[in-house]
Amino acid sequence: MQRYFVSSSRFKDNNITITGDDVHHITRVMRYNVGDKIICNNEEGKAAICRISQVTSDEVQVIIETWLNENVELPINVTIAQGIPKGDKFDLVVQKGTELGAHAFIPFQADRSIAIWDKKKAEKKLQRFEKIIKEASEQSHRNKVPVIKSPVSVKDLIEESKNYHVKLFAYEEEAKVSKHQSFGNIINRLDPGQDILVCIGPEGGFSPKEAGLLKENNFSPVRLGPRILRTETAALYALASISYHFEEMRCSECQQ
Amino acid sequence: MQRYFVSSSRFKDNNITITGDDVHHITRVMRYNVGDKIICNNEEGKAAICRISQVTSDEVQVIIETWLNENVELPINVTIAQGIPKGDKFDLVVQKGTELGAHAFIPFQADRSIAIWDKKKAEKKLQRFEKIIKEASEQSHRNKVPVIKSPVSVKDLIEESKNYHVKLFAYEEEAKVSKHQSFGNIINRLDPGQDILVCIGPEGGFSPKEAGLLKENNFSPVRLGPRILRTETAALYALASISYHFEEMRCSECQQ
């Protein structure tokens, strides 16, 4: 069943009014009509099966039939801070990152970021990312839509990091040191509900200056496997590993 | 240091003769000359630091200086069998799959594959994939270059599967069953050196007929986390999880 994220303010008793782009998607792309069913998610992460009761050119009215008791959200809130990469790699990070359960994304301007997002460019980019994230959330049946924040500097990122229980950064140099802190050990110590900030450098990684600054501010350097990953692959490795650890390896509902 | 994969037949005593596209890359892209150093990998997975001793228009001669004692290969041989997807998604699977440590790739024509690769198309595709895989192997500092096999049918895939210790397939329906076999438990039972075949359906997943056939032939259905992943994301989730399990969680060299 097709899923749509609808602002909680649009929920009134047992009725929901859908407006904007979703109307086009429901009526034109999916060709749904009165009587057809869709799933609506609100901003609190609750979802309900709904029946379409009325269709006009700019609104779709639905009636809630059954609230769903589902939870497909990662038990750890993972925020991916990604050094601004070249080209459209950020598109891939937000799309795949959403499928893999990310809680939020923060782009940051790193020393080695070749692309620079000025204010105008950033605004356009953010609109694009929000659209990709919403679509990926619907497609992957997320209960919540991840947040994308405005681009920040490394200094701002360090300030922001005070809101997290655990913070780490992928550091290529760490992969070359034989005695290093294990990503696995850090993940293993996390408790459900905690907030973790995973920072990935742009192409070329973090500069030694940035790495020093992050270490001083209690970010743990980690390697993500022994191979050298491209910047856009690193975030996906981190998210898939955390999902595997908490959702597949510690799967309480699974057959042993 | 830039890395090149060179056929073992080109290694003679302490000398290696490099020909083909790599000559262009060494002399024109990297602008290396006599005296500069590169890393050469042979097909057995051994790598050496080499010094360029001679450059002509179609050959680069290098002298081996030091054999490296490095191993960045996944301890499990993971073969990704991917249902032929639409567009250029297979490019992403082989590029990211190589970075994440895949041993081999097998494209297969599934019931729900919309694209059909006839013989001529398949030949062109395979050449393209080989190039992407070689470049990704060099970039990610792999010791071995993954193999890409010719497209097969599901019947052929089942025949091929007899060569593997463990075989599984991602089955979306499995994510909806509360009591299901855990991907984590299957991975946990693997021993280093074993061969595992991970099968991913195309867009829309496996047909019920294919799923039945695979189950009859001892493929275990698994979910890859509770969210619905796009076809090209599923292979990356499986590889990242196996890397995390064996290379980061069980990291013997890491600080505890």
From TrEMBL, chains A, B:
This is Ribosomal RNA small subunit methyltransferase E. Its EC number is 2.1.1.193. It is found in: Cytoplasm. Transmembrane segments: none annotated. Residues 73-242 form the Ribosomal RNA small subunit methyltransferase E methyltransferase domain. One of its GO terms (cellular component) is cytoplasm. Residues 18-65 form the Ribosomal RNA small subunit methyltransferase E PUA-like domain. The keyword Cytoplasm applies. InterPro entries: Alpha/beta_knot_MTases (IPR029028), PUA-like_sf (IPR015947), RsmE (IPR006700), RsmE_MTase_dom (IPR046886), RsmE_PUA-like (IPR046887), tRNA_m1G_MTases_N (IPR029026). It catalyses: uridine(1498) in 16S rRNA + S-adenosyl-L-methionine = N(3)-methyluridine(1498) in 16S rRNA + S-adenosyl-L-homocysteine + H(+). It comes from the Bacteria. Belongs to the RNA methyltransferase RsmE family. CDD domains: RsmE-like. GO terms for molecular function: rRNA (uridine-N3-)-methyltransferase activity. It is an enzyme of class 2 (transferase). One of its GO terms (biological process) is rRNA base methylation. Specifically methylates the N3 position of the uracil ring of uridine 1498 (m3U1498) in 16S rRNA. Acts on the fully assembled 30S ribosomal subunit.
